[in-house]
Amino acid sequence: MSIHRPFVGCVVLSVAMMPILCAAQTGQPSRAPESARQLKNDPLHVFSESVQQLSSTVTKSVVQVLTTGFGLTTDEQKNDTAYLEAQRGIGAGVVLSPDGYIVTNAHVVEGAQRIRVRLQGLDKQTAAQVDASPHGPIEAKLVGIDRVSDLAVLKIDLKGLPTLQLADSNDLKQGQVVFAFGSPLGLENSVSMGVVSATSRLIDPDKPDVYIQTDAPINPGNSGGPLVDVDGRVVGINTFILSESGGNEGLGFAIPSDVVRNVYDQIRTEGHVHRGQIGVYLRTITPELVEGLHLPTNQGVLLQDIVPGSSADKAGLNVGDVVVSVGGKPVSDVRHFALDLYGYKIGQNAEVGVLRNGQVQTFAVKVIERPDDPERFADMVTGPDNLVNRLGIVAVTVNDQLRDALGDLRIPNGVLVAARTPSSTLLGEGPEPGDVIHAVNGTPIHDLPQLKQHLRKMKPGDTIVLQIERSGLLSYLVLESE
C-alpha cells in the first residue's frame, strides 16, 4: 500500500464508445409525459435533483489549477542519469473569497514557475476585468505555501467571484454523505459522491496530522479540490489516496476544514504559518491506563509531562490531569486535542478543561510559538533584499536576536535561511528553512550582503558547496548548475 498524491502532469485517455439505441430504434414505446412527471416526485428523483443543484452551485467556485515548471526526471535508457525537463501539472482549488483568494494543495504548485487557473463560473463581464476569455486560464500568484499541512494559497486579480464557506470539521459524522470536486486525470469539472469513512484518521503515528477519510472516488488531478457536505460547505481539501494500483480504491483523504481555515487565514494575512504549543506531553487514555492508574474516566488524554516554565505550567496544569475538552469541545484522544489546538493563533488563550480529583476545572492556557518551527523566522524578512535567487532562498543575517532564538550555534556568524523559493535552478539538496549558512566553497560567510557578493563572483556552471549548521550539526551541501 502506498500514498499517491492525486496530481498528474500529462494524461492520455483511451475511451471506447459504445453504441446507444433510442427507444424508436428498438421498437419500445417511450414513457408518457404524465408518468415522467409523476416519477419526479419520488425520493430518488428528489435526491437526484438535489445533487444536481448542489453540483451546479459548487462547481462555480471550483477551479482547475494548471502549472508549468522544471523538475528532475530519470531517463532509464541513459544509465539512470537525472536531468531537468519541463513539466506540466494539473490540480484543483477552491475560491474562498470574492476578491480571488484560492486554496489548493502545496504539492500541486510547489516548484511551479507559472500558475494559471480556469474557473467554471466565470462570465464575460468578470473575465473582462483581466482581459481574459471566460473559458481560458487566468494568471495566478502564489501568496504562500505551507508544506507541513500541504496547503497553499493563490490569488487572482478578480472581484465578485462566487465562493464556498468552510464548515466546522468537528461536526462531521461517520457515514455522512460528501462530494469530491476537482479535475481527476485532467477531466475538468468532475464530481463524485461517497461518505465519510472516518472523521479523524491518523496516517503516520509519529505525526499529529489527522485527515478525513472518504470513499468518494478521488484520483490524480483531484488534489486541492474541495470535499463538501450536502449544504455545499467545504469540510476538507482532497490531498492524497492510499492505493495499490495508483488509482482510486475507496481510500481517499482530505485535510479537515478547521486546519484549512487556520492555514488560510495565516497565509493570507502574514504570508506564512506559525504553529503553536502549550508545552505538554500527552497520551490517549486506554483501558489499561484506566485499570492501572484507577482513572475516573475512559475518555480524554492523560498529561504525562509538562515542560517546566511552559504556558501550561504557568496556567496551573499538573502531571496526571486528564484533558477532557479544548475550547468547550470534548477531547477523546491525542488527535482531537492536536486538531482543536491547531485552531488557535499564537498569543490566544486556549480554554483547556481537565478532570482533577473528580472535578472538571478549566484553565486559560496561552498558545505560544514552537521554538523549533522554521517559519518563526519569516517575520524577520523585510523585503526583496532578503531574496537570494541563485540558491532559491529568503535569508537574514544572524544577529544577537537570532542567536538567542537559535540557541548555541557552533559558529556564531552566518546567514539564516528563513524560507525557500522556486527560483533556484541548482541540482542537489538545497538549504532548508532553519539552516544557517556559514561558508561558501570554504569562504566564511558573516552576513547576507557578503553571501550575495560571493555568489555574484562565481561563474555559471561553478559547483557551489555550502557549509551549513542544521539542528546543531555541521554539514556540506553540494549544489551544481544544470
Global shape: flat
Instruction: Quickly give the CATH architecture of the largest domain.
Output: Roll
- The total number of structural domains is 4
Quickly count the helices.
Answer: 11
Count of strand segments: 29
Provide the CATH top-level class of the largest domain.
Mainly Beta
Radius of gyration: 26 Å
- Counting copies of identical and different chains, the oligomeric state is single chain
The percent range for strand residues is 35-45%
Structural class: alpha+beta
- By CATH, the topology of the largest domain is Pdz3 Domain
- The N- to C-terminal Cα distance equals 35 Å
pLDDT averaged residue by residue: 80
Low-confidence stretches: 7-29, 74-84
- Specify the CATH homologous superfamily of the largest domain: PDZ domain
Describe this structure as you would to a colleague.
This protein is an alpha+beta fold and 482 residues long. It has four domains: 59-155, Thrombin, subunit H (Beta Barrel), CATH 2.40.10; 169-270, Trypsin-like serine proteases (Thrombin, subunit H, Beta Barrel); 276-368, PDZ domain (Pdz3 Domain); 374-481, Pdz3 Domain (Roll), CATH 2.30.42. The protein contains eleven helices and 29 strands. It has helices at residues 23-26, 33-39, 43-58, 106-109, 124-127, 257-270, 287-293, 311-315, 334-342, 400-406, 448-457; strands at 2-4, 62-75, 81-95, 101-105, 112-119, 138-146, 151-155, 177-182, 190-202, 210-214, 226-228, 234-243, 252-256, 276-277, 280-284, 301-306, 322-326, 329-330, 349-356, 359-366, 368-369, 387-388, 393-397, 415-420, 426-427, 436-440, 443-444, 464-470, 473-481. The strands form five sheets. Strands 22, 23, 24, 25, 26, 27, 28 and 29 form an eight-stranded antiparallel sheet that branches. Strand 6 (138-146) and strand 7 form a beta hairpin. The longest helix is centred in the N-terminal third of the chain and has 16 residues, at 43-58. The relative contact order is 0.09. The model is unreliable at 7-29 and 74-84 (pLDDT under 50).
